[in-house]
Amino acid sequence: GRIEEDLRAALASGHGLCLHYQPQVASDGKVIGLEALVRWDHPQRGMIAPEQFVPVAEETGLILPLGEWVFRQACVQSLRWPGLFIAINLSPLQIRSNGFYDTLAGIIRSTGADPRVLQLEVTERVLLDDDDKVRETLAKLRKAGFTIVLDDFGTGYSSLSYLRKFEVDKIKIDRSFIQHLGETADSANIISAVLALGHVMGLEVAAEGVETAEQQAFLKVAGCKEMQGYYFSRALPAIELGEFLPANS
Ligand code: G
Ligand code: G
Ligand code: MN
Ligand code: NA
Fold it and tell me: Up-side HSE of residue 77: CA atoms within 13 Å toward CB?
C-alpha cells in the first residue's frame, strides 16, 4: 500500500523521519533520561503517529531498516547529552531477526555511543514465545552493557514468570495502572506490590503515563524513583528539550 511505499522512500532518502524525546525524571523532578519516540512527517499527510506506521513496518519487514535508523539516530544523539540515558523501543521482530546483536554492535562501533547509557525497551509480547534465541540475544546485549527494560509491565500474560526466565534490569509499570489511581484501591495496591517486587529482585522500577500532581505524589511516597508522563513533559523534538536538560548540555 501507499504507507509501505512512502515509508520505503523515507528510509531510502533519510527525509521525513525524526525522533522526539520524552523526559524521564527522578523523584526530585530532575531529568535522568529520555525515551526516543519515532515520528514521521509525511510529505502529503503531515505528521503520522507511530501507531499507524510501526504496524505497517512490522507487516512488511521495513521494521528492520526503520529500527536500525532509530537506533543509529539515538546513538548519535546520546553523545550530545552526556549524563542522560536514552531509551529505545524495540519491536519483537527486530530482536528475533538474524544478526540483530551484530547490527547493534556495528552501530555502536561506528557512532562511538556508550551502551551503558542506552536502555532497550521490550514488551512482554517479545517474551511470549519463550524462545532460546530471544533469551540469548537479550543476555548478550545485557552483557555488552545495555540496560534491558520490560515496557508496559502488567498488561501481558504471566508477567511474573518472565522476570524469572529473562534477565531484565528495569520494569516500566504500564500507564493504565497509573491512570486508574484514585478510582479504586486496586491500582494503588498493584503499583505498591510491583514496586516491592521489583525492588526485592534488584530491578529499577519506572512508572509511565504520570499526568497529575496527585499521581506523582502517590508514586513518590510509594518509593517509585523514576517517572515519565505528560505531567513532566510530552515527547519533544531535540531542539525543544533545552529547559529539561542539565545546564551544561
Ligand atoms: O508517542 P507515542 O505515540 O510515540 O508511541 C506510540 C507507540 O509507538 C508506543 O507503543 C511506542 O512504544 C511505539 N514506538 C514509538 N517509537 C518507536 C520506535 O522507534 N520503535 C518501535 N518499535 N516502536 C516505537
Ligand atoms: O508503549 P510506550 O510505553 O513506548 O508508549 C509511549 C507512548 O506513551 C507514546 O505514545 C507517548 O506519547 C505516550 N505517553 C507518554 N506519556 C503519556 C502520558 O502521560 N499519558 C498518556 N496517555 N500517554 C503518554
Ligand atoms: Mn516505551
Ligand atoms: Na509503555
Answer: 25
Which residues have CB under 6 Å of ligand 2? 22, 37, 89, 151-152, 175, 208-211, 229-230, 235
What's the pLDDT tens digit per position in 185-220? 999 999 999 999 999 999 999 999 999 999 999 999
Measure 123 CA to ligand 4 centroid, in angstroms. 8
Ligand 1: residue whose CA is nearest its atom 24: 89
Q: Which helix (H) or strand (E) holds 95?
A: helix 92-96
Is the complex ipTM more than 0.90?
A: yes
Domains of the chain: 23-37+63-240 (3.20.20.450)
Closest CA to 94 of 143, 53, 133: 133
Which atom of ligand 2 is closest in space to residue 172's alpha carbon?
3
